[in-house]
């Protein structure tokens, strides 16, 4: 694999534009039909499976339109979760997608990238089902309360500093060698996506759950978590240990850009005849 | 400085390659586009840069040096072959790069500029059928228990 700064910049910009568009759809209720189709609920609650949101759209089970409506609710949840994934996770995929493009034949690049994204998205949708179930359970236990979010924030804080989190982050930096020809190449790209989603879900599950449980400030929390996830991927792999992590490399980069490199002190003059 | 616009893969080896004993030999299978490019490249006024890479090299024997050669068949009845050096690389940092829980990067990637061998590649009679044969020889023979593995060998051109 040969690193090419121009190709990397092109890919990075494209992925960031996709992420930005997803954020715009999330933040702009007028664009809701783009994500939800006919299932757009009157109160936007992206990636939300709160009992209130479900009750708003779900009729009685005896209604003849019950199945159709439940289908649209499922479509709504699925669409919202997928949109949130695109917005939050797309910037994390720049490195692996570049790896795939740089190690695949030109005619296979689009296909391998699509398979990788499909594997990654599929893995996250399975993970998302568990997170949505947890959100639903929390909503039934303490509706419109900050208590579940507070508990998850505590868990997320501990998880963020734990060696296990570092193990998952290290794995996210590791890209498998890909076969170049035939069905093996397709399988490798798909499996890389599934593997990557596994490490990504393991690394981010607590942070992703937190905004889902907040009664208010959902989008602000999502944005904050996105920044954290992007910044922690900038850190190089490390030996797993208990430590605060997340913004180290990003802060050093910002400091370097603002202040410039630190000047080392001038070497002391050598003493003569001392 | 003019940076290259793009890198295109012309061929890749088929499977992982363990490096044991006196070394190994593999064949880099070319795509049809890669074969066409190599056949036509010498006609270009300014041929593109051509690189051979050993990707995802992992193991624990940091003190090994790998010598990489391209193997060409001799034209004529004798059917001999000759090896032209593509380059050498020491596997410094191999253990650290291979540690799954430390500073891992899925192994080392070693790149060699083989542009000077482009004319030889064109003239190679086996190019259309066998791809490009590559020989990788450690500077000292490795034991059979050596754990050095090369993920794949590939050939790129920079556009």
The main pleated sheet of chain B reads as: 8 strands, antiparallel
What is the CATH architecture assignment of chain B? Answer: Sandwich
How much of the sequence lies in strands of chain A comes to: under 5%
| Beta strands of chain A, count | 0
Weakly predicted, low-confidence segments of chain B: none
CATH topology of chain B: Jelly Rolls
| Proportion of residues in β-strands of chain B | 35-45%
Q: Spans of chain A with pLDDT under 50 lasting ≥5 residues?
A: 33-46
**Order of helical and strand elements of chain A:** HHHHHHHHHHH
- Identify the overall geometry of chain A: globular
Mean pLDDT of chain B, as a whole number?
83
Structural class of chain B: alpha+beta
Average pLDDT score of chain A: 81
User: Gyration radius of chain A, to the nearest Å?
Assistant: 22 Å
Comma- or semicolon-separated keywords:
heterodimer; A: 274 residues; 68% helix; 0% strand; B: alpha+beta; Jelly Rolls; two-stranded antiparallel sheet; 41% strand; globular
Structure description:
The complex is a heterodimer of chains A (274) and B (159). Chain A is mostly helical and 274 residues long. Chain A has one domain (5-28, 74-259). In chain A, 68% of the residues lie in helices and 0% in strands. Chain A is globular. Residues 33-46 of chain A have low confidence and may be disordered. With 159 residues, chain B is α+β, with helices and mostly antiparallel strands. Chain B has a single domain, classed as Jelly Rolls (Sandwich), CATH 2.60.120. Chain B has helices spanning 32-41, 94-98, 118-123, 127-130; strands at residues 7-12, 17-18, 24-30, 49-57, 65-73, 81-90, 108-113, 132-138, 149-150, 152-158. In chain B, a hairpin with a 7-residue loop joins strand 5 (65-73) and strand 6. The relative contact order of chain B is 0.36. Chains A and B meet through helix 1 and helix 8 of A and strand 1, strand 4 and strand 10 of B.
């Amino acid at each position: 694999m040969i690193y090419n700064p121009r190709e990397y910049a092109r890919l990075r910009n494209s992925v960031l534009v996709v992420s930005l568009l997803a954020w715009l759809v999330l933040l702009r209720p007028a664009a809701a039909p783009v994500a939800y189709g006919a299932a757009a609920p009157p109160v936007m609650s992206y990636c939300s499976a709160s009992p209130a949101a479900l009750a708003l759209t779900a009729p009685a089970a005896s209604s003849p339109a019950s199945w159709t409506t439940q289908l649209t609710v499922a479509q709504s949840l699925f669409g919202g979760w997928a949109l949130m994934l695109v917005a939050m996770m797309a910037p994390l995929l720049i490195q692996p997608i570049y790896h795939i493009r740089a190690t695949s034949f030109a005619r296979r690049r689009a296909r391998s990238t699509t398979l990788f994204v499909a594997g990654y998205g599929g893995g996250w949708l399975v993970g998302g089902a568990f997170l949505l179930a947890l959100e639903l359970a929390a909503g039934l236990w303490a509706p419109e309360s900050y208590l579940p979010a507070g508990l998850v924030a505590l868990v997320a804080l501990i998880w963020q500093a734990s060696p296990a989190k570092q193990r998952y982050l290290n794995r996210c930096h590791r890209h498998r060698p890909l076969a170049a020809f035939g069905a093996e190449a397709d399988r490798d790209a798909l499996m890389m996506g599934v593997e990557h989603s596994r490490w990504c879900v393991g690394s981010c599950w607590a942070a992703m759950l937190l905004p889902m449980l907040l009664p208010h400030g959902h989008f602000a929390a999502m944005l904050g978590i996105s920044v954290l996830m992007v910044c922690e991927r900038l850190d190089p792999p490390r030996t797993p240990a208990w430590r605060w992590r997340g913004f180290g490399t990003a802060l050093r980069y910002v400091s370097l850009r603002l202040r410039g490199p630190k000047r080392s002190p001038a070497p002391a003059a050598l003493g003569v005849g001392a | 400085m003019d940076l290259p616009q793009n890198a295109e893969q012309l061929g890749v080896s088929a499977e992982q390659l363990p490096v044991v004993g006196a070394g190994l030999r593999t064949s880099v299978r070319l795509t049809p586009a890669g074969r066409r490019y190599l056949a036509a490249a010498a006609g270009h006024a300014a041929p593109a840069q051509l690189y051979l890479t050993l990707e995802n090299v992992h193991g624990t024997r940091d003190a090994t040096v790998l010598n990489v050669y391209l193997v060409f068949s001799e034209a004529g009845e004798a059917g001999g072959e000759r090896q032209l050096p593509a380059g050498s690389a020491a596997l410094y940092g191999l253990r650290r790069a291979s540690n799954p829980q430390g500073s891992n990067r899925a192994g080392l990637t070693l790149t060699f500029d083989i542009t000077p061998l482009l004319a030889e590649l064109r003239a190679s009679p086996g190019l259309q059928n066998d791809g490009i044969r590559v020989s990788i020889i450690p500077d000292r023979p490795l034991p059979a228990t050596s754990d050095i593995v090369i993920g794949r060998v590939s050939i790129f051109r920079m556009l």
